């Protein structure tokens, strides 16, 4: 059920208890986690923080900890699947889920006791009404002599609950039996069992003919998209408790910017949320404008900026930034010689000498930096790039340290997904979490360096893919596969990096191709994940249009394709459109996908 | 040269950094005691000879040996005393149960001294704060907050908290726990205090 009063029904409940926080591995979750940690430390709530990067880790961690805690908080994981079925908790366990993944699973919505959703209800959810989904249960029964219209809603509910309890018991028995019989089975086979149990939607469970209930559920669960950033939700909670600080506001900004950088929300929603945050920014930071009562230089100041969308341009040279931002690289077509010439024309048009532009940005002449934003915007308009500037925020403290929100997002993302194998996955999570604190600036700068490497590698891979025509049209979608020997291919085995690469690749492809039909196709991208297990990561990206609503149907499509060809697939990530697949099953999986979508 | 071995003992202890207890050098101590015994016997015979035979030219030698004996005694006593001071610091560092490695470095008598020290410290602590006593080995520096944020550096297992429930300490999990429970584990290196 949805929590309406966050303070009474969530915060005051957990304030006197010990809680366990499960945090997913993305920047938005990290920011939400930092805000919540700050609140808990202020109120002395004893908590334990466990990072999770996928469903398997979530299940194992839950099994280990379920004896010790009654209250669990899940950040950016768990809203889009049936939690009670997967985790099989005890009767008195309560879950608070703050997740951006939509659509929210209907069992989570309509469960009154154990699952509380920290999601605002006006967040364009379109949950189907209770009666639509759960009424047809009674109509399927033998003795439908009693008209379901006439019976009380409470009777329906008890019957429904009995059936749910029965189903849960059956699944629990099935799981026990499997655990006893197949304990030494290969992980992927076990994972396949889990994946078919993970989404026991109307398709795989019942053999009854299609009913309106199934249609409604299918329509509801077909497209995957994202809602309001969890960091913003947590910040609103802090604001309600009057415990919000500038630092928490900055984390909320970084969370929102992460959603924009990864193209998870529409432009309209981003602008609306920026407006909401701007009010908070002016509330906290109004003393900066006042000449007399200014704060010391070391204090944090956040300010609203209408700044260029070139990534990391203040920490890099302008030239590098222009070459490695996907927006400019795609529009200029920088993988071709012609594109390089256009870039030079662009710079000449603004009157910026090449030597200056290739220097570090902080070392550029002041006279050139003064009107840089307006100059670039004007010239960009001439070259067909209308959205060169974007509304965002910047933070600065001390004399040296100034960061745009997108800088911090890229730095943290690179820290979290860096391919160095010196520690387990949780080491990177901890490093990324630390880098968000102001006292760990060295980690943030390290993250910026990693981000630069990552961006360069992305652009080079895109250039090589386009020049060697690796993006092939398979009919209903485009397909691209990274071979094992490609340089920096290990950078792209993690889901967020691969998704970012795919989105940029699609944008560049759309700009480069003349085929009008291909411009509207979605993209499926595969990259090798692990050589020993022979697995690849496959990502599906919706088609690129200016006004797209960012809804992704690949989650369900992958699942059905894998089922029909019995490919060994693992749905480990919280984003349903990212899967792991055995390399041998790749071709038949693709064929199934083609026939499914055409 | 005389007193060399005693100097060795002192040097060995000087080399060990503050707070560490090297193994008890039983051999070295035995050698020093033997040297002292030899010197004493030689001195005894020389004194007898000087007194009876009237050979006063032996007196400087006797004086020299006597000085060596005094020096040896001073060095050995300093060695033993410094070790005792280190062992006392261990009680404040590690608590009443010492790790096994350290126990092997102590002689039997040192162990006994340690137990006696523990006992008198415990009696004193019990006598302090009314009925229940006061644990003065905690909070060696004034604490800034009741609860601290800690991160687990290695897999430790279950750890019991005040109200009877337990927390599972796994690598890289972060916890927010009462300060007094965590201090021991921070000293042992299982948890790391995070200052944000």
TrEMBL record, chain A:
It comes from Pan paniscus (Pygmy chimpanzee). This is Cell division cycle 45. It comes from the Eukaryota. Its main location: nucleus. It is found in: Nucleus. Residues 153-162 have a biased composition (Basic and acidic residues). Residues 136-210 are annotated as: Disordered. PANTHER family: CDC45-RELATED PROTEIN, CELL DIVISION CONTROL PROTEIN 45 HOMOLOG. GO terms for molecular function: chromatin binding; DNA replication origin binding; single-stranded DNA binding. Keywords: Cell cycle, DNA replication, Nucleus. GO terms for cellular component: centrosome; ciliary basal body; CMG complex. GO terms for biological process: DNA replication initiation; double-strand break repair via break-induced replication; mitotic DNA replication preinitiation complex assembly. It holds the Pfam family CDC45. The gene is CDC45. Belongs to the CDC45 family.
Automatic annotation (TrEMBL), chain B:
The keyword Magnesium does not apply. InterPro entries: GINS_A (IPR021151), GINS_bundle-like_dom_sf (IPR036224), GINS_Psf1 (IPR005339), PSF1_C (IPR056783). One of its GO terms (cellular component) is GINS complex. The keyword Ribonucleoprotein does not apply. It is found in: Chromosome; Nucleus. Its main location: nucleus. Residues 144-195 form the DNA replication complex GINS protein PSF1 C-terminal domain. Belongs to the GINS1/PSF1 family. Required for correct functioning of the GINS complex, a complex that plays an essential role in the initiation of DNA replication, and progression of DNA replication forks. GINS complex is a core component of CDC45-MCM-GINS (CMG) helicase, the molecular machine that unwinds template DNA during replication, and around which the replisome is built. This is DNA replication complex GINS protein PSF1. It comes from Pan paniscus (Pygmy chimpanzee).
């Amino acid at each position: 059920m949805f929590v309406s009063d966050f303070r009474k029904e969530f915060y005051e409940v957990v304030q006197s208890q010990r809680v366990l926080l499960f945090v997913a591995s993305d920047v938005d979750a990290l920011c939400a986690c930092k805000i919540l940690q700050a609140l808990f430390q202020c109120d002395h709530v004893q908590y334990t923080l466990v990072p999770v990067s996928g469903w398997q880790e979530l299940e194992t961690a839950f099994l280990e900890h379920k004896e010790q805690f009654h209250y669990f908080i899940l950040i950016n994981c768990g809203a889009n699947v049936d939690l009670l079925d997967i985790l099989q908790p005890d009767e008195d366990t309560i879950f608070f889920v703050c997740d951006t993944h939509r659509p929210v699973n209907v069992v989570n919505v309509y469960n009154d006791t154990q699952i509380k959703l920290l999601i605002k209800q006006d967040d364009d959810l379109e949950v189907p009404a209770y009666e639509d989904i759960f009424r047809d249960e009674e109509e399927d029964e033998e003795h439908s002599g009693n008209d379901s219209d006439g019976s009380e809603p409470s009777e329906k509910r008890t019957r429904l609950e009995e059936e749910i309890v029965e189903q849960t018991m059956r699944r629990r028995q099935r799981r026990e039996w499997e655990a006893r019989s197949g304990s030494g089975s290969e992980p992927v086979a076990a994972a396949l069992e889990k994946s078919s149990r993970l989404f026991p939607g109307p398709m795989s469970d019942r053999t009854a003919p299609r009913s309106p209930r199934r249609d409604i559920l299918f329509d509801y669960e077909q497209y995957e998209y994202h809602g309001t950033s969890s960091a913003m939700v947590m910040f609103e909670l802090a604001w309600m408790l009057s415990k919000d600080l500038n630092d928490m506001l900055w984390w909320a900004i970084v969370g929102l910017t992460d959603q924009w950088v990864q193209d998870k929300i529409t432009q309209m929603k981003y602008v609306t949320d920026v407006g909401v945050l701007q009010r908070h920014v002016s509330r906290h930071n109004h003393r900066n404008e006042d000449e007399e009562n200014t704060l010391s230089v070391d204090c944090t100041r956040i300010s609203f900026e209408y700044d260029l969308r070139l990534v990391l341009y203040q920490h890099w040279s302008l030239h590098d930034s222009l070459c490695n931002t996907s927006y400019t690289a795609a529009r200029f077509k920088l993988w071709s010689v012609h594109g390089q010439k256009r870039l030079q024309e662009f710079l000449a048009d603004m009157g910026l000498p090449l030597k200056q532009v290739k220097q570090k940005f902080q070392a550029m002449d002041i006279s050139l930096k003064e009107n840089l934003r307006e100059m670039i915007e004007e010239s960009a308009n001439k070259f067909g790039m209308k959205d060169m500037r974007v509304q965002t925020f910047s933070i600065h403290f001390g004399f040296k340290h100034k960061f745009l929100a997108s800088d911090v997002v890229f730095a943290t993302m690179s820290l979290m997904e860096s391919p160095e194998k010196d520690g387990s996955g949780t080491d990177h999570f901890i490093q990324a979490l630390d880098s968000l604190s102001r006292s760990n600036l060295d980690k943030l700068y390290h993250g910026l360096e990693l981000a630069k490497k990552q961006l360069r590698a992305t652009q080079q891979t895109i250039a090589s893919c386009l020049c060697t025509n690796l993006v092939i049209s398979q009919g209903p979608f485009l397909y691209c596969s990274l071979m094992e020997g490609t340089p920096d291919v290990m950078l792209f085995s993690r889901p967020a990096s691969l998704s970012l690469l795919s989105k940029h690749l699609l944008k560049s492809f759309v700009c480069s191709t003349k085929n009008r039909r291909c411009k509207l196709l979605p993209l499926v991208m595969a990259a090798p994940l692990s050589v020993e297990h022979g697995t690849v990561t496959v990502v599906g990206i919706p088609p690129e249009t200016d006004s797209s609503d960012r809804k992704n149907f690949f989650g369900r499509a992958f699942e059905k394709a894998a089922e029909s060809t019995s490919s060994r697939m693992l749905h480990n990530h919280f984003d349903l459109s990212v899967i792991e697949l055995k390399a041998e099953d790749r071709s038949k999986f693709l064929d199934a996908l083609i026939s499914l979508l055409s | 040269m005389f007193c060399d071995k005693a100097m060795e003992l002192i040097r060995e202890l000087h080399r060990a950094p503050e707070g560490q207890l090297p193994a008890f050098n039983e051999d070295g101590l035995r050698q020093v005691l033997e040297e002292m015994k030899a010197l004493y016997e030689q001195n005894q015979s020389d004194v007898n000879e000087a007194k009876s035979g009237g050979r006063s030219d032996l007196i400087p030698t006797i004086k020299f040996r006597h000085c060596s004996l005094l020096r040896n005694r001073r060095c050995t006593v300093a060695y033993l005393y410094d070790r005792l001071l280190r062992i006392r610091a261990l009680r404040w560092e590690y608590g009443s149960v010492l790790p096994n490695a350290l126990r092997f470095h102590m002689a039997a008598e040192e162990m006994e001294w340690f137990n006696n020290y523990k006992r008198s410290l415990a009696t004193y602590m019990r006598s302090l704060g009314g009925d229940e006593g006061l644990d003065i080995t905690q909070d060696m520096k004034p604490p800034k907050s009741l609860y601290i944020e800690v991160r687990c550096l290695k897999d430790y297992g279950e750890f019991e908290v005040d109200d009877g429930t337990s927390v599972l300490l796994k690598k890289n999990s972060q916890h927010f726990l009462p300060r007094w429970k965590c201090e021991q584990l921070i000293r042992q290196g299982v948890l790391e205090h995070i200052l944000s």
